[in-house]
Amino acid sequence: MNDTTKQELLSRNEQLISMVIERAKRDFAEEIAVIGLTGSFRTGDFHDKSDLDLIIINNNSEGWGISSCFILGDIGYDIYCTPWETRIEDQAALENPMISSLIDLQVLYYAKPEDLEKLRAYQQRALNALAKPIGRDCLERAKKWLDLAKQEYANALLTGDPGAVRLASAELVYNLMIALSHMNNTYFRRGLKRYLEEAKTFRHLPGDFETSYWKVIRAKSVDEIRSASHLLLQSILELYNDLHQKYTDQPVPTYDNLTGTYEELWCNCRNKVIASADKKDASYAFYAAMGAQDLLDEMTESRGTRKFDLMQYFDADHLDLFKDKFLQAMDDYLEEYHRAGRKVQQFNTFEELYASYMKQ
Fold it and tell me: What does the pLDDT read at residue 118?
């Protein structure tokens, strides 16, 4: 792009900005709080067809009246509003991927000093969160995007339409990139065209990340797209698990955190597993097995008990095997109780229960 074209673009942007600010002052003095510049013209990474990205923060629904979508020359523009309580709030909590449009916003106009102060407070919230070391908070944010990537992988498997498979793979890659930014407790400062370039600077990346990334994009057939998507997804999931182990405090079973968990396992699962197996009711047993596995997994995650893999033993034609493995798991879980010094709350008579319960 030559200097003449560049100056024409910048001059047109100044006119557009002045127009929007003039309209805000004239028609939306109470409704529009802040107008700021973001996107490629904020970072300087624009080309001759780049549009102007304005953040217009509105105080109420009437502010949406300033919105407009139009084409000027051969460039499209979308003038839209960003409410405090939705997008700005989400960006400050690092829940919205467009974090840069809050933190790096160049303020062009504000209605009142308190509006600018409010914006600065939101920006500081985001900066404070990003200043924390990698840990449970940022990894929980990453998990949300990893789960979305898993959904897109499922979509790629569930359709045979090549275009739909390709779209699912694109959504998968996008969600994984956002997940990676959270796994590194950072954010993308520039647009989509620079995501790979920025991601390559992250401290924590899976091995052969760039190669795996390009395999998804360059895949030709449906099978190649699915295979490449799986490899990229799996590599980032493995990285997430490694970071989770390294940077989060893992719970350990204690007298207090085990309270009631063995009894809950007995209450919610034991008799269902036994009854379904004894009746050879495979459907009932299937759900009982699911419930038992979910509860044991929850205990592992939140209390630090040992990992039990019961579902590997489920066989609709051999339900007694699963029942035996479950009862063994209960005995093993009881050992967790004993090591923590807990006793099971089990009573032979109602009178014993009444005396104990009423003492509490």
Answer: 98
